[in-house]
Amino acid sequence: MDFIRQVLVITRKDLRAELRTKEAINASLAFALVILVLFSFAFDPTADQTREMSGGLLWIVFAFAGTLVLNRSFARELPNDCLDALVAAPISGGALFLGKALANFVLVMAVELVSLPVFGIFYNVHWTSRFWSLLLVLALGTWGLTVIGTIFSALTVNIRLRELMAPLLVYPMLIPALMSAMQLSMDLIAGKPLGGENEIWLRLLVAFDVIFTALSLLLLETVLVG
Amino acid sequence: MTAVAAEGVWKFFGDYPALRDVKLGAEQGACLALIGRNGAGKTTLLRIIGGFSKAARGQVRILGCDPRETETRRRVGWIGHGISVYDELSAFENLSLFGRLYNLPNPRKTAMEWLERTGLERAKDGLVREFSRGMRQRLAVARAFLHQPSVLLLDEPFTALDDRAIAVLQRLLQDALVAGRTVVMSTHQLREALELATHVALLNRGKIAFHGERTPEMVADPGWVYAHYGEG
Q1: Tens digits of per-residue pLDDT, A132-180?
Q2: Which residues does residue B186 pair with via DSSP β-bridges, in sequence order?
Q3: Domain ranges in chain A?
Q4: CB of A6 within 8 Å of any CB in chain B?
Q5: Across-strand partners of B27?
Q6: Which residues of A touch B97 (CB under 8 A)?
Q7: Interface ipTM above 0.95
């Protein structure tokens, strides 16, 4: 119970701080919308072509926009040395990680849920036919992105070039999750159901989330204290 | 009982030994002033004692336990170079947050009590980013004392404090010592520190040059320890 309470305290603190400044979410949302709109003007694909590229386009935008939120996750603890106070507090590294990851998940999901209708309008794509399945894939893909982004945000927090280093480390690690999420999103937007030939991608995405969540829960203490 | 003990502690930054075989102890109820020139290793030692970084060699114990154990951390208060409170939260939200993290029975009530003790009750809903430097420092002091720690680790606690914040901190430290708490503080403000200290340790280039009880000579002349045991 203590663990869950501590996780929620950290999540609430991060969300409250972000909603007061709106630094990361505004930048992330603006980036996602601008890229989606610019690409819609740059290309003039047919309906079939749009469906084929939808997964890739969406997840590249989500991954880049998400990094803007995730980079800030531990960096926001640096002013006033707030990270010291968290490291000194009697909470486990796992609770700190999960609290931050949950807050990041909420923020990145919010950006994605605002971006999706914009994508539908500008690309003339009917993306709601498999809405609940798509939401599940979004949640799984976003959790994978969030977990990797949060742990690497901790890893690079004391590096001066962290804004550059974090994405360089995060994107290669994300390849399996991004490939799965892209493939599944493309199928769902094309109207195919989950399961059958795309089940392997779903399994891969779930396995990625489980493995990296477990590793991050175990490693955060070592990452922060050594 | 020894509240804080460091035994044979070494720390390297690259090849440079920032701490060299440091042996140090503070009994329960003692106030140890850790003094030394810039770069002597005071902050490095305090951060190792606080569990923020690990020693290359040697061992640190707080109340007989490892500094990183959850129960040990519950009993330690820390003031570092930064104020360690969030600019985007109000004073009350900051203290309530740390009250919850330290699992206090009534974090909101405790937060209000500490805001009153540090003279910040009227600014409780103001965001920290709007506070003056003195107010921010007093809030940092309240944050460190909030959970009634048995051991206080203070890194340059008097630096950049205004008169009122110095008075608040000195009063709180005196109360803490009367209550049998242990204080270890690194400082350059020798006069303020030696008024409170029961013991003094002088670090010189990562080595303990002197460790013993504070004497009347030290209070009369804050430079006395440097003159007798330092590099001059």
Answers
A1: 999 999 999 999 999 999 999 999 988 888 888 888 889 999 999 999 9
A2: B34, B155
A3: 2-224
A4: yes
A5: B2
A6: 9, 13
A7: no
